């Protein structure tokens, strides 16, 4: 969001779809020559293929592995199987290369695979004596399997198998590496695949979550939970809670057990149905709401006190919270530039807005926000500090506007802890950038779906983004009704309830670097999505009458432009079906 304290738009870097494979860490594979075999012997050997990689699941930390520049470490989350995985972080000219030495045979075929997550991740083999191979992914927030194969040459007794990240990118994760083929003499880890878990049962359910438990398997180091055949969670213990589900929906769950030897078959399935639900309303937010961000700083827009904010706004997001030296913890510092003689006067304005039926929340992030929630401790620090500010100032909730990325696992934990403290009246909003909501695999989208039962509205920023893909796979340029409707469609069809979707736009040409649209265009988009009228070339396959509304950055820029935006879009929002 172009909520810059100095009025400058943010800069977004893009990367090409292809990058050259760089120097990688070696997983050197050496072996012994094998005599010629009959067809029967060869068939028997093929049936006896083993994973010749040692400590393939990193359950013994980095035993048997070497990573360049101390770039790698065994971590307990996220994991694909078992209880640990490799986390490797590129830095400078180091791509976080890792290696291991195992044994193979010449004239043999090996299937190379691993599960990866995070930023750019590469897997390949060099020095095979035949054709070297490689594969890669530009990054994923969920586990993805990379797979390829290679054949050793007649005189090849060592092969380099590698995994690494890419320059300037964030950490990547690797788990369950497999070099599957004939045993070259080194054998495999002396561990058997665990038994199939039994006793899977569904416990407490909510509108978006199900508690699961099962009987522990003595040789298992971790468990994998599947929903309708798709992996959705990993657990180190014999119980977990599956979140991000759709209300009033029946799901089928299974669980498998894992250790260093591999993963068991899936358990007998158990069904569970979620309860009736919907998004959080904070108790006071109307069915159709207008959101505006109030600037706690002076960047050239009209300086306002909260009492000056137009009555058209139903949710006022105070921008922004500040970080402390404690990871995840937030605080709020009233800027003297906005003219309040005291904090008490500011609190009185919040109370007056409450009396007028409005919600006042604290926005966390912005273009310059540095708050990071990436651990259990920081999640708890976020929840505790946010709730303390709600109690101190009277804020009704929080807005998540972290423009430098977020961790869906720990942000989900933080928001659920906050909701447990604040109760059903919590107002929870989000303001992701357009790129953050292009796919449900993105961290922001995942977080929104994870907290769907307590989420009030996602007001995506339809600006400062350039062209983007709509839900029909076509490219649309910002600043048009098609851009607004086709991108909203992604969220509407991606799992959010229409009541949790809002259109976020700049209040004036000065409020953002690009993407401004006239209020009439916003109103056309609202009509298109809710009534099927006013559309451009893109027309949704159905209407969404319960669409929450619209948002703008900011109430101050709106006031600078004579409140044209709120006086036009506000009545439209409040008259939606």
How would you explain this protein's 3D organization?
α6 (481-493) runs parallel beside α7 (519-531) and α7 packs parallel to α9 (564-574). It is elongated and about 80 Å long. The two termini are 29 Å apart. By secondary structure, it is of the alpha/beta class. It folds into three domains: 66-180, Sandwich (Jelly Rolls), CATH 2.60.120; 198-273, Immunoglobulin-like (Sandwich); 289-574, Alpha-Beta Barrel (TIM Barrel), CATH 3.20.20.80. It contains nine helices and 33 strands. Residues 2-47 have low confidence and may be disordered. β9 and β10 (133-137) form a beta hairpin. An eight-stranded parallel beta barrel has the order 22-23-26-27-28-29-32-33, surrounded by four helices.
């Amino acid at each position: 969001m172009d909520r810059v304290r100095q009025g400058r738009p943010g800069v977004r870097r893009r990367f090409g779809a292809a990058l050259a494979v760089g120097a990688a860490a070696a997983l050197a594979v050496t072996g012994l020559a094998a005599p010629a075999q009959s067809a029967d012997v060869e068939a028997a050997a093929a049936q006896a293929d083993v994973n010749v990689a040692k400590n393939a699941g990193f359950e013994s930390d980095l035993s048997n592995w070497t990573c360049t520049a101390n770039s790698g470490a065994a971590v307990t989350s996220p994991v694909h199987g078992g209880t640990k995985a490799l986390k490797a972080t590129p830095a400078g000219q180091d791509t976080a290369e890792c290696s291991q030495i195992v044994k193979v045979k010449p004239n043999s075929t090996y299937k190379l695979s691993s599960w990866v997550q995070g930023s750019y991740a590469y897997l390949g083999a060099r020095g095979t004596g035949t054709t070297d191979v490689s594969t890669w992914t530009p990054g994923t927030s969920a586990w993805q399997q990379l797979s390829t194969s290679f054949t050793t040459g007649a005189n090849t007794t060592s092969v380099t198998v590698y995994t690494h990240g890419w320059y300037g990118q964030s950490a990547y994760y690797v788990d369950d590496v497999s070099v599957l083929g004939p045993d070259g003499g080194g054998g495999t880890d002396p561990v058997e695949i665990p038994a199939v878990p039994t006793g899977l049962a569904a416990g407490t359910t909510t509108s978006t979550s199900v508690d699961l438990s099962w009987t522990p398997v003595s040789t298992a180091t971790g468990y994998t939970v599947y929903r309708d055949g798709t992996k959705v969670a990993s657990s180190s213990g014999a119980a977990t809670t599956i979140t991000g589900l759709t209300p009033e929906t029946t799901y089928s769950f299974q669980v498998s057990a894992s250790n260093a030897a591999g993963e068991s078959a899936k358990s007998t399935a158990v069904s569970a149905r979620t309860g009736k639900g919907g998004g959080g309303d904070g108790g006071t937010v109307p069915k159709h709401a207008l959101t505006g961000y109030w600037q706690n700083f002076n960047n050239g827009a009209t300086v306002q006190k909260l009492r000056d904010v137009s009555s058209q706004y139903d949710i006022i997001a105070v921008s922004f919270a500040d970080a402390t030296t404690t990871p995840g913890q937030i605080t709020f510092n009233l800027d003297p530039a906005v003219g309040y003689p005291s904090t008490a006067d500011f609190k009185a304005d919040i109370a007056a807005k409450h009396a007028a039926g409005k919600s006042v929340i604290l926005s966390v992030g912005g273009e310059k926000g540095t708050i990071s929630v990436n651990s259990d401790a920081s999640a708890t620090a976020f929840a505790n500090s946010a709730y303390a500010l709600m109690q101190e100032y009277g804020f009704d909730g929080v807005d998540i506007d972290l423009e430098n990325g977020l961790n869906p696992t720990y942000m989900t934990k933080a928001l659920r802890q906050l909701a447990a403290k604040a109760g059903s009246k919590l107002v929870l909003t989000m303001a992701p950038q357009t790129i953050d909501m292009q796919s449900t695999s993105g961290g922001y989208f995942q977080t929104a779906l994870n907290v769907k039962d307590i989420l009030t509205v996602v007001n995506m920023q339809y600006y400062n983004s350039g062209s983007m893909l709509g839900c029909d796979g076509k490219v649309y340029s910002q600043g048009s009704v098609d851009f607004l409707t086709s991108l909203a469609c992604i969220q509407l069809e991606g799992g959010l309830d229409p009541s949790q979707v809002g259109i976020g736009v700049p209040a004036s040409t000065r409020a953002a670097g690009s993407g401004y649209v006239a209020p009439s265009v916003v109103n056309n988009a609202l009509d298109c999505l809710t009534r099927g009228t006013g559309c451009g070339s893109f027309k949704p396959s159905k209407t969404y009458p319960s669409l929450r509304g619209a948002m703008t950055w900011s109430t101050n820029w709106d006031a600078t432009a004579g409140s044209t935006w709120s006086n036009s879009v506000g009545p439209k929002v409040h008259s939606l079906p």
